[in-house]
Amino acid sequence: MINRNALRIALYTALFAMAVPAFAAKGDVAAGEQKSKVCQACHGKDGNGVPNMDMYPRLAGQYADYLVKALKDYKSGARKNPIMAGFAGTLEEQDMLDLAAYFSAQKSPLHDLSQHHD
């Protein structure tokens, strides 16, 4: 007879072991700054945009996980933009994490509702 508690513990241990690398993966801000050179033509040096080029999104201050997801979606084709698909197609996972770490660390006029007070 199978010990249900032992099976349950083994299952939870396996799930935890698979989840830890996903949470442990982080980007390096300095590496992201170096990798961001190609992004600067459209998004600006610090991700706050280029004067008179409002058609490109502001990256500075965005959540890192949002930026990584956007890059993955451009690479997979889930998000459609021929220019970004070309750039994202060359990126590895660590490149995406590094770029996201850099741009999310930049000062930005963007803010969320956590600063809203009644």
Overview of the molecule:
The protein is 54% helix and 0% strand. By secondary structure, it is mainly α.
Quick structural overview:
The protein is mainly alpha-helical and 118 residues long.
Question: What secondary-structure arrangement, pairings included, does this model have?
Answer:
Layout: H1 4-24, H2 29-35, H3 40-43, H4 64-76, H5 82-88, H6 93-104
Helix pairs in contact: 2-6, 4-5, 4-6
Rounded radius of gyration (Å): 19 Å
Strand tally is 0
Q: Report the sheet with the most strands, covering strand number, pairing sense and barrel closure.
A: none
What overall geometry do the principal axes of the alpha carbons give? extended
Secondary structure tally, helices: 6
SSE pattern, N- to C-terminal: HHHHHH
What is the CATH domain class? Answer: Mainly Alpha
How many discrete structural domains? Answer: 1
Report the helical percentage. Answer: 40-55%
End-to-end gap = 60 Å
**Strand-residue proportion:** under 5%
Structural class label: mainly alpha
If you average the pLDDT, what whole number results?
86
The CATH architecture name reads Orthogonal Bundle
Name the features.
118 residues; mainly alpha; Cytochrome Bc1 Complex, Chain D, domain 2; 6 helices; 54% helix
